[in-house]
Structures are given as C-alpha cells and as structure tokens.
Amino acid sequence: MNSRDTILQRLRNRSGGELSAPDCDFAVLQRPSSSVAERVNQFQKIIESVHGEVHRCTRESWIAQLVDILSSRSARSLLIPAAHQIGRALRDSGREDLPELLIYDEPIESWQPHLFNEVDASITSTRGGIAETGSLILWPTPNEPRLMSLVPPIHIAVLEASELYTTFHEAMHAQNWASGMPTNALLVSGPSKTADIEQTLAYGVHGPKELIILVIE
Amino acid sequence: MSQTTSEDPHHIDVKEFHPRAQAAIADPKIRQNFRKAMDGLIAKRKDAFEGWDLEALRDLGANIRLRALANLPDLLEQLEKKLTENGIKVHWAIDGDEACRIVRDICVARDAKTVIKGKSMVSEEMELNHYLEKQGIEALESDLGEYIVQLAGETPSHIIMPAIHKNTGEISELMHEKTGTDLSNDVEYLTASARQQLREKFMTADVGVSGVNFLVAETGTLCLVENEGNGRMTTTVPPCHIAVTGIEKVVGNLEDVAPLLALLTRSATGQHITTYFNMISGPRKPGELDGPEEVHLVLMDNGRSSIYQDDELLDTLRCIRCGACMNHCPVYTRVGGHTYGTTYPGPIGKILMPHLIGLDEGRHLPTASSLCGACGEVCPVKIPIPDLLVRLRQESVDGDKLNPAKVRGHGAKRGTLEALVWKGWSWMHARPAVYRFGTVVAARLRKLQPGQLGGWTKYRTAPKLAAKTLHERMKERGQ
C-alpha cells in the first residue's frame, strides 16, 4: 500500500471511533454597519500605524498627487498596468513630470534583473480593501503580475473607497471567493517588514519598503 | 555567548534537558533576551484583542479546527482532488525521511542545484536542509531570522522568531564574519544587507520550498502568513514551488481561514494581520507572466495519524502554530528554546514532540512545566495543554490501569521504587486502621525525617510532618 492509502486508512479506521463535528458560529466576526467615510478613516488609521501611507484623492486629482509622491522620492521609473484604466490614464495624461513609465508585458524570465535592480516604483489596482485590518485585496492578473506589487521598493496601490469592506470575512463573501480562487490572491497590509533582529522593526526586508495607497473617494 | 551548544544541532540528545536548563538559567544574557522579547509579546497580544469577544473567537477557532479534524480523511481527499484540478501535484509522506526524498526527487527531476526556503517548521521537523546538503543541493533560508540561525549553524529557538535568542551585537558579528558586512548595531543596515544578499539568491534559485499555514479543501488553496515578503518571493520567483506541511493543517471552507487568521497573527505577535496573507491556488497559467510553472504539496504524517487515534491526544492537532503558549510560559521564558532540544519548543513542543520522537526520548518534556495553566488560557484554539501534559506524565510512568498507555515509548520513566511507594500508598489508604496507625507513627517519628529529600530539596526546603495527625486534632476539637 502506498503512503497515501496508509495514511488515509489510519485516519479512517480511527481506534477512538467516529468524531462528531461541532457547529461553528461565525457571529463573533459580525460588525455593525458603517459608512464609507468611517471605513476609510479606520483603514487609514490602521495602515498608518504600520508605516503605510494613505493619500485621499478624487478621480480628477490622483495623477497630480501621484506625481508629487514620486518626485518627492526622486523615483526615476514607474511600472504601470498597461491595459488597466490606471495605466491608460497615466499614459494619456500627457504629464511630462511623471517618471519613465514601464510596462510588465513579457514573462519575468526575459527581464528579471531589470525588474529586480532598476525599477523604482510600481502602481497597481486593488480588488478592494479591509478597514478593520488595513488590508488591500490584490488578485494579480496577466495585466498586473504577482511580482509587480512585491519587487520594486515602492508599491503604490489605488483603492476605490466604495470597495472598502469592514472585515476579511465580509469581503470574501461579498465577492464570492469560494466559487473560484485565482492562481494567487493576496492581502497586503503594509510595507514588507521584519522584527527578527532583537524585535527591532525594519522595513523593506524583502518586499517594498514603502506602501502608498491612493484612496479614490 | 548566545544559547548555543557545542553539539551538532541535528544530533541533540533530548534527554539531556536538565543540564541544558541549568546552563541556560545560569546565563543572564539568554534570560534577558527571552524575557525582554516575551514580555513585549504578551503586552502586544493583549492589546491586539482589545474590543474583541475573545472567548467567542477562541470558541470559533477551536470548533473550526475540531470540525476539520472530525472530517480529516474526507477533507484531505477533497483537498487532493481540488489541488489536482488546479494543477498542483500532491504527494504523501509517512515520515520526515519520505518527505525529504520526495523533495529531493522533484529537485533531481528538474536538475535543481539550489533551493531557496521560506519559513517552515515542518521542514525543520524533516531536517530538510541537512538532508538536501548531503545530496549536494544547496538549501538557503530566506526568512531573516532563519537566515541568521542558518549562518550560525543553529536551529530556531522560537517557532515564530527563530533568532530571538540573539541580540543585535551578536547578529552583527555573525553577519560580519560570515558575509563580510560591516560591524554595526544599525538594524536597518543589517536588514538591507541581508535583502541584497538574498535577492541575488532568489533570482537564481531553481526551487522554492515553503511551509503552509492553512490548506483549504473547498477551493484547493495554500495559505501562507508572513511579514517579510520572502514567502511571496519563494513561492513566486523560482520556476518550481514545493510546499511542505502536516496533514492536520487542512480546513474545510475558505471562510474558516478568516477567524483562524484573526487569531493567529494577534496571538503570535500582537498584529491585527501580518503584512502578507498569500493564497496560492495553482501554478502559472497560460498568459500569466510570473509565478512557478510547477507547484507541489507534500503532505506529511510523521506521527500525526497516531495522535489522531486518541480522543484526548487528538486536541494536540488543533494547533495553528502561533507560539503564544511559549511566549506566556514561565519555563520557556527562563530556559529559552534550545534547551528543549526539539523542533518545537515550549508547551506545544512538550505535548507534540513525545509523539514524534517517543516518550522514552522525550521523557522530560511533559515534566518541564509548573502546570501554571497560562498556555491553556492563551491558546487561540483552546488546546487543554496542561491536561495533555498530565496525561503524558501518566503515560510516561504507565500510571493508570483503567486507561492503558498508548504513546510510543510509554512507561520510560516508571521506576520500581516509585511504583512500590504508590502501591503501598494506595494499599494503606484502602485500610483505615493501617492508615491511622501509619500516620500516628509517622507523626511521632517526624524528628527522624531526613533533611535532604533528593531532587525535591535541591531548590526547596523539605516539607515537615505535623506533630499531630489530622484525626488527632479533630478529636481534640471534640468532633
């Protein structure tokens, strides 16, 4: 008998007999309903407490705010999702004070050293956020691949205020995640960090050193 | 000196707990490092649950884990089916050796020479790095704490914070010596140096090996919890990802992970959530531009199916590996993680390791506890750790005829003298006349009681017998 069948047989022929499954009451995760503004405030408070940055924008103002953010950091390049409206808006903006706009349209194998060593910042969309934990929901796509939000030292994410949920539990139900998960789904709740050296916080250990969120209200 | 022993970390004699404990207690640096860290974590955990109905949340966590265990074989089959549909290859391993061989075979088939690793306690359980090195495959840890521990040639001293036994100065010296970084107490500089060193490795590694925090049967998803991003790197950059984990990690539904995640991060480090919660449900699909082309899951038993047989011991398998029990343990805080000599230290190690290595090897683990109960009080899934410690103590002396001992290596601590004393004790207590006579004689002869009572009086004063027995005193009071 192979290991699989041996293990399953041991579990099925349990000497203690069949186990009964208790009921699970998820009510403890319920939260009172809140307004969008309340959720944005809660989100901002939490994300700032973990060294993230929130900029509240409008659909008209976000590009100008992005330019300020990038120039204050002297970013020379920005990786954008080409086919997403964020990427299109940036390319069509005609602003000359934006850094060089880069597109992730080739498999990683063909340009890995460039992505790892030379891209200063990236901007991605989000699938919403979670106010209670200050989390962004990211479902990477061919248009916004997985490494886009991980490798560049600055990650800028665009979050629609109306897509901010209160809890993770609420978000996964509202978006019906259980019906099918993508190759990779992520909750991102701050810049990369570690406390492995004597409990001292340090940012950007492997992923981005800065997480900047543009909340579109 | 940090808490290292001259022993090879892969061949530590677990039975030598007491000498190691003595040495650790005598070392103020170890006590300071651990005490400082654990006090901080206790306070942070408390703050993180502020405003929660913590009891209700722990009940939910416990019930989700119990429900998953009740359906364990079905869930594992459902998981395998779902993962296979998603394109993830599932492997089963009876023990650590088989799990190691599976990883090796995948590496060999890909002609892989370098493996980069995300944090995984199961891979520590397998002693995977050690094994791969012997096979000529380089295995490099990428979690900063694990990286430090690996540079030092040690094993983790805490399941969440592997290098907690070292302070900044020690780490600076170690990195200077092994990697040529400048001597500096600037944690940011040290972290940035490690980032640079490891980025190079991520780009060239042939295989990424990670652990898993939760497996979701419903959707066929591997969930990883981390702060650094090295877990995401490990599971995204190399062309092949191998996840290794224990068979007990599965839960039924995707929604089950929401409360478990809320409990895990708050209990572990007092965070509302970690920086990354990474959910992987397949390899790179056509059209996708990154991610591994192959994803494997190794499901390891290694004693878990034996624990599963017993109604009481089963609770051990609820564990979600947060480490809160060690953070709150007065013994762990004083002796540190290496003293146990086991993969999993602290209270969870004391109830888990005897099953993995046998109660003969792990005979001192269940008694390395004051039974204060703190571990059971903070456990996010309500594992009755103190009860399980008592159960394992009974097993180690084969104490209870009504509940025959089951754990491998049971009875290892049974001594003829002790067994005889207890036999006499129970014989006397079943005979009132003998009992009265015996206690009166003992009270009269109390001056003859020796001052030294073996191990008991090594650190304590000897208890003194009363001048009169309880029966005599009650009689005097006229009752």
Distance between the termini of chain B: 63 Å
Oligomer: heterodimer
Gross geometry of chain A: globular
Count of helical stretches of chain B = 22
CATH class of chain A: Alpha Beta
- What structural class do you assign from the helix and strand content of chain B? alpha/beta
Taking the sheet with the most strands of chain A, its summary is: 6 strands, parallel
Query: How many strands in all of chain B?
Result: 10
- What coarse outline of chain B follows from CA principal-axis ratios? globular
Number-wise, the strands of chain A total: 12
Which band does the percent of strand residues of chain B land in? 5-15%
pLDDT under 50 segments of chain B (min length 5)? Answer: 1-6
Proportion of residues in extended strands of chain A: 15-25%
List keywords for this structure.
heterodimer, A: 217 residues, alpha/beta, Rossmann fold, 6-stranded parallel beta sheet, 4-stranded mixed beta sheet, 6 helices, 26% helix, 23% strand, globular, B: 479 residues, 22 helices, 10 strands
